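Deliverable D2.4 — example input (structure tokens):
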């Protein structure tokens, strides 16, 4: 979920901090939780808070996480994580998102991402020029849409740290209300107010991370190729090549300080509908531009982030922060360095469970500032 102002960020940070200090004695609560974890049992954590944003007005947000072991007797099987974020606002926007990682015996892994949103959203058009020149407003960018996305992938470790698998990707967008600029935009006129696509493809991962949802050390190199034939997609069909490299390094001899960096790119082929074009600016990459403000046939981004968890009596506390910087581009035929989009940002972290964080991020880009409320790290 994302907002354009700092109001929700400040409200949520305040309430999360108050909530953490208002809990009952830590030793009793944490010992019960740790015992459940050691036995592989289900552990549930949840936090909710009201907030305010200039676009959504008053809203209620909730972040929850389920962790458990699919094989409690086998300590080699990493605990599974299912986070859930939900929100509703007085303007009529609402949604739910989940990005689960299920770990099974014999090195099987199911990564199951799902989201549904009904949003008063923004559409700038296609390409760098549209994203940078069109001023956001009711008569230029605002529109309403329903969106469903489900892109599960199933992987198996065929050799040490090498995973192979398949992925499907289902997307459905129904545009309910447009603005005058969008009514005359070329891509919207071509594909219309209902865009759907279903793709299938192969996944190759080399993964040495110590934990998928919040790595302290290790690396990930992932290549995904998805094809969306015309019988399953609006338009004449297309394909997308995803490449993702991540590196994590613990700083110093203790825990709680991590330097992370990420290089990723999406290369599009064929007739990609405007709702599915590679883009930068979401809550899981640069975090400084409104999601979809910059979209085109191809996208790429480089991000560097420092993550810090505070300590209390020699142990990691529930509180932390991050700072990051990033740069990215979208392009059609060729990249132009003058179109590089910079970002700086900072965020607050609150641990619902050990290494499972609610994240509140505020990023500043070129003529842009955006706030994100989510669970688990951006990468």
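Example output (designed residues):
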């Amino acid at each position: 979920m994302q907002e354009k102002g700092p109001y929700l960020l400040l409200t949520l940070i305040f309430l999360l901090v108050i909530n953490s200090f208002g809990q009952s004695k830590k030793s009793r609560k944490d010992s019960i939780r740790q015992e459940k974890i050691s036995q592989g049992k289900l552990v549930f954590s949840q936090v909710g808070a009201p907030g305010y944003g200039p676009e959504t007005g008053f809203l209620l947000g909730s972040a929850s996480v389920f962790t458990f072991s699919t094989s409690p007797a086998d300590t080699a099987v990493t605990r599974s994580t299912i986070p859930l974020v939900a929100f509703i606002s007085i303007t009529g926007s609402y949604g739910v998102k989940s990005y689960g990682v299920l770990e099974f015996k014999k090195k099987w892994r199911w990564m199951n991402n799902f989201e549904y949103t009904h949003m008063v959203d923004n559409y700038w058009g296609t390409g760098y020029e549209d994203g940078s020149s069109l001023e956001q407003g009711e008569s230029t960018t605002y529109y309403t849409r329903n969106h469903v996305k489900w892109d599960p992938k199933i992987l198996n470790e065929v050799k040490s740290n090498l995973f192979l698998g398949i992925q499907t990707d289902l997307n459905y967008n129904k545009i309910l209300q447009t603005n005058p600029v969008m009514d005359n935009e070329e891509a919207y006129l071509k594909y219309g107010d209902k865009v759907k696509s279903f793709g299938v493809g192969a996944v190759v991962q080399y993964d040495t991370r110590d934990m998928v949802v919040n790595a302290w050390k290790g690396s990930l190199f992932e290549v995904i190729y998805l094809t969306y034939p015309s019988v399953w997609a609006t338009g004449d069909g297309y394909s997308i090549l995803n490449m993702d490299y991540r590196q994590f390094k613990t700083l110093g001899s203790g825990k709680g300080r991590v330097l992370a960096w990420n290089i990723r790119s999406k290369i599009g082929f064929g007739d990609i509908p405007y709702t599915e074009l590679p883009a930068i600016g979401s809550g899981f990459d640069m975090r400084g531009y409104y999601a979809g403000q910059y979209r085109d046939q191809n996208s790429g981004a480089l991000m560097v982030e420092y993550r810090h968890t505070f300590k209390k009596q020699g142990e990691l506390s529930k509180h932390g922060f991050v700072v990051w910087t990033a740069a990215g581009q979208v392009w059609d035929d060729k990249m132009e360095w003058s179109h590089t989009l910079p970002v700086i940002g900072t965020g607050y972290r609150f641990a619902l469970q050990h290494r499972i964080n609610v994240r509140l991020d505020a990023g500043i880009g070129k003529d842009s500032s955006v706030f994100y409320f989510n669970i688990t790290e951006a990468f």
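Residues 2-375 form a domain with the Porin fold (CATH 2.40.160.50).
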